[in-house]
Protein 1
Amino acid sequence: MTTHDAAPFVIEMKVRDSECDAQGVVNNANYLVYCEHARHEFLEAHGVHFKDLVARNIFLMVAHMDLTFLSPLTGGERFEVASTVQRHGPRARFEHVITRLPERTVCLKAHVDVICKIDAKLTRGTFFETFG
């Protein structure tokens, strides 16, 4: 399992105008989408595809989110989402940091706890050992 000391998994993205509100900044709900996209990319980089999990009746679900908004993103800006993951009992905690590029201003810090259900039963989290 990746730890806080390991190099994070990083993806780069660009804000689309449709993600901004009337004030010209990214609507808060879209930061959740950015974090989710980073988690999916992380899983794919480790050979895990959601459609394959669903076919096997394995479901990864968000159990808890904690977001700290620090600086807004605006339309057209490039940013990166850096993600690390660590197992916490039956959960995997993804830590995401969204940083504006090129100046590297931290815009958001998030902790997202994910659980795993197989055949509709909560697991002890052994699925997350796949990443370590």
Protein 2
Amino acid sequence: MGGKKASMSRTERILSLIDPHGYGLEIGPSHSPIAPKSEGFNVETIDHDTREGLIRKYRDHPVDINKIEEVDYVWRGERYPDLIGSHEKYDWIIASHVIEHTPDLIAFLRDCEAVLKPSGTLALAVPDKRYCFDQFRPISGLASVVDAHFAKRTTHSPGSMAEFYLNATSKGGKIGWDKNEVGKIEFIHTPEIAAQKMREAATQNTYNDIHSWCFTYSSFRLMVHDLFSLDLIQLSETESYDTTGCEFFIGLSKNGIGLRLSREELLHLTVQHD
């Protein structure tokens, strides 16, 4: 099984976490859907703009805009059940490189669990902060995640903006890499930009797209376990794949079995892998 897992593509890993024959929702597929309608998936989508708007946004970027499909629900900050008009609708949800952008991580997970069927699965692809532009940022802790939820954050905090812009780096000209990358490290933004973005966040109630949260494979599994233990979410782990390249993959469900190791063991792994 280990050899089979090692040879799987990222798409295969994500799809292995769900029943792809069920009725699904993909959040933020944009120009790179994991489960495209064009390939026969029975899926609806949520994105931050219409297909036409996404095409305009990415027209001059080095991406294939022909992969941008019709958007079923344009998200403007609503709770997902309100946006979709239904609860417990989907057999699966896919969100690739989405959760780290959310100002309120707990609200995002609760929205997903609200529109999942009782046996449904949320499949996440999450960047490992050690192998992307977040490499010099600290791992996000439980306190910050819980505080953001009870503060009902809908935008990123001034501190998050300062930390992100001060520390974002490339390596070998890349913003995501694997553990064997040996290229030169360069900072992406100046301190002046960081200060500007911090002040804007403090004075303007507008959303700026950054990574609010930074995780490793072990720290994210611990976060999910702790949020479940605190009765803040109903989702627990079903299956997961350790970091490959710059990301890891995890399935969450209301009937997940949770960790297969003790919390203490996972704490030690989190510290070792920081």
Protein 3
Amino acid sequence: RRTLVDKVLAHSGRCADSTFQILWKSGDTTWLPYDRVAKLGVLKDYFAVLGIEHVSEL
């Protein structure tokens, strides 16, 4: 399955209550809650940049 998400740019909030700013391949950005982005590979990439492994560390 092809993803239309380019990357996670930022987050707001803590732990599983966080929302994430998503950059779409179209160039648009939107804010989505954790439960909508939890399974996206780009979220793991974002966590790696922050030096964390799990949403509970936010």
Protein 4
Amino acid sequence: MIQVFFAIFLTITLANQEIQDDPIIGIDLGTTYSSVCFQNNYNVEIIANEKGFKTTPTVVALSNDEFIVGQDAQEQAIINPNNTFYDIKRLTGRQYYHPNVRKTQKNLLYTLTEQNNRIYIEVPKYKDESPKLFSIDQIQAIVLTKLKNQASSYLGQTIKNVVMTVPIGYDDSQKQATIDIAKIAGLNVVQIISEPKAAAIAYKKDIEEREKIIFVFDFGGGTLDITVLKIKKSYIEDISHGSGNNLGGEDFDFNLVKYFIEQIKESTNIDIMDNKNAIQALKIEAQKAKEILSSQKIAFIKIKNLIQGYDFNHSITREKFEDLNDNLFERTLLTIQSAYDESNLQKDEIAEVILAGGSSRIPKVQQIIENFFTYSKIIKDQISDELVCVGAAIYANQLTKKGQESTNRFVEISKTPISFGLEVEGRLMSIIIPKLSKYPLSLSKLYTTAQDYQSKVLISIFQGENKSVIQNTQIGEFELIGIQVAKKWIPQIEVTFSIDFNGILKVTAVDLETKRSNNQIIAKNLLRPTDEEIQKQIKDNEDIEKEEKLKSIENLKIYQNISLKNLQTSKIKDLLNQIEYDFMISLITSSTHWVTMNEHNTNIKKEGFEKELENLKNEIKKRKVDL
């Protein structure tokens, strides 16, 4: 045990963020949808996927030993529920036995398992392995790889750097997990920023020079994130935060699914709880109904042959929807109240409330906000599934040499959402970094021994605001061995807490007499994969990427060959005049040449070939010819 000897605080602001030569993209890896953006000069481009959509469902499926991502994975979910993976973000950086994981697991149709308290997805069979385990990081990296490749194909160069957004409530382990996921996907995380702050940055581009205080309400598919900010053209500064974990659009969907299951049992006496295909079908329709009820008073659900020849036909009113989700609306209000109370502001000091995230479209949510902020302007027209991504891209551009030349640069001031300290004698909390400290920074404090002739001390690290560590949360510990052996109070042990640009904490302890030291990066605990494990996952991801690219090339070549062969039949020739026929031949020949030129181009990924296939199909459809 150690105790406070005397305190010397050394404040060291860490070096400025490194400026990158290469382009940096912004990625919002969301619970339900993800997007990738890039700032080109003054414009932010939301990079569409091969199907032309600006957002990609954060869904991965395994079918015939092939990974499917996004819309395609979503569309086959009903027939393949055991191998369709969603809501993965809610598991990021968590231990298997964490209460939030247990809660999330109840709503998943695929199988989770654990090894050393790490979470894995178990599939019955993959290639020659049965069963096969995939880490949560590896599955999320597949989504991230798709987004990276979209950007690479669009920009015509290999993308290596990214600014990632994360929920405001992410702890160090979850932030580190996000960095690891990006690394597996072949991306270097230049910086992590919170999702509501990214939304504010996207909004800030239209703000005037006058300083104002805004309340950012970011209600997505998996979390509710709130940030109160002081904002001006030239800077953006944290005031307070609020977060609701496992509070998002998915939770509204799950409540609807439970209701539908009850209705089916009441009317048919059929219990479908164990029928994964039926549950998946209900989940899809529940999400659609929720979205419809944001603009209409009633939604109709029709599912043909849901189970045993039973057709499910049901209607639900907005009033009933609000009644079913009363507990979620109550939690929403409590989260708003908490962030507001922490800000120490009067309501009339908050100029504007910015709504972001799909769940903020729910009328009852908007009503709660309007009733709470009677003095503030509520900004609803900024609601966009890509707003967070846009903010990440704007911030990313600031970290490039090209962005440094811009006149629209701003200073971003981040503050810790909680206090950090260590345990001293009497199970008391000695705070080293107080709540709402600006970071990056380092703070040091001197400690001594509590007993005579100690040869080592245990450094137990906590976060929280209570004077007793019993009421706070332990986030790490390590031993400092080889300290000066002397009477208590004689040794001098300097403990330094450092928080980097990403808000990740590193703790270092050194005996000033013996110079023995030890440290711990809190995020790199026993539950995070080792460097060797990450390298293996990088290799696995690269192998998957190569296989998928070859498959995409093969699909494109097959379509080209079949189209060319069918076009040359007399049946098709008779439908076309010579000009149309020559154009179609030229179209397919040009596409074939494009494949030959690009199949060995490392900058053109799977998504590029999928887009070429989609474009070719669309061009042929325009001619109203069935090839």
